[in-house]
Amino acid sequence: MRQILLGPQIGETVYQAIRDAICDGVLQPDERVVQDELAQRLGVSRQPVNQALQQLKREGFLTETGRRGLVVAPFDLDFARQVYELRAALDAPAAIAAAQHATPEDKRAGEEIIRTGRSAVADGDLSAMAAADFAFHDFIYTLAGNTLIAHTARNNWHHVRRSIMLLAKKPTKLGPFWDEHEAILGAVVAGDSTAAGQLAKHHALASATAISEKIPMGGL
After folding, report:
1. All CATH 1.10.10.10 domain ranges in the chain, comma separated
2. Options 3.30.1780.10, 1.10.10.10, 3.40.50.10490, 1.20.272.10; which CATH number does 10-72 get?
3. What's the CATH code, domain 77-212?
């Protein structure tokens, strides 16, 4: 964790830094989180760290254990599965709506995201692959034009990201993941809303199955 440059958005910056450390595995599941130590590592006062920890606790990234105090929440497979099931409920209507709005320019933009994701897989860069995954799905949410779907999905994204970082130990096996993205994009830009919705739902539910079976590959 790098020290933070002080500024008007210090609270949000501290929150993001700690959340990223949890999602990227820098802070491991069940690791004790000490406010003073984090403040020192980040080079900030205790107040923004305390605020960030309380927010992360509300969001399920931290949990209170009694004598040990706050710890990074253990990775709960049932919770992760539920996150992907929520994504299935959001991604299907988003893909349907996106198929009704897509343009040739959107096709090129989507293909560029997919190329980035495939490159990250080839390089074994799991963090870049996770970022590209978010970029692709957020691209679909934006095309859909439903702000409520986009907001809900973005709020839950970091739980998805955490599952990818903790379970997908071999990024080079995640090629099929991007094949599914390519199929979703193809249906969207073709204006085939039925296929787009079905493919998006299948993609998310396949990820839920992979999570529940502890399989570190596939449609994550």
Report:
1. 10-72
2. 1.10.10.10
3. 1.20.120.530
- Decide: residue 29, CB within 10 A, 0-12 exposed, 13-18 middle, 19+ buried: middle
- For the residues 156-166, what does the mean pLDDT come to? 88
| Average pLDDT value over all residues in the chain | 88
Q: In whole angstroms, give the CA distance from residue 146 to residue 180.
A: 22
164 or 149, which is more confident?
Answer: 149
Using CA atoms of 165, 166, 171, 175 in order, give the dihedral in degrees to the nearest 10: -90
Residue 214 pLDDT grade (very low, low, confident, very high; cuts 50, 70, 90):
low
Instruction: Quote the tokens at residue 102.
Output: 């897509």
- Mapping DSSP to helix (H, G, I), strand (E, B) and coil, where does residue 81 land? helix
Task: Please say whether the beta carbons of 116 and 94 come within 8 A.
Answer: no
Burial of residue 78 (CB within 10 Å: 0-12, 13-18, 19+) is exposed
pLDDT at 208: 77
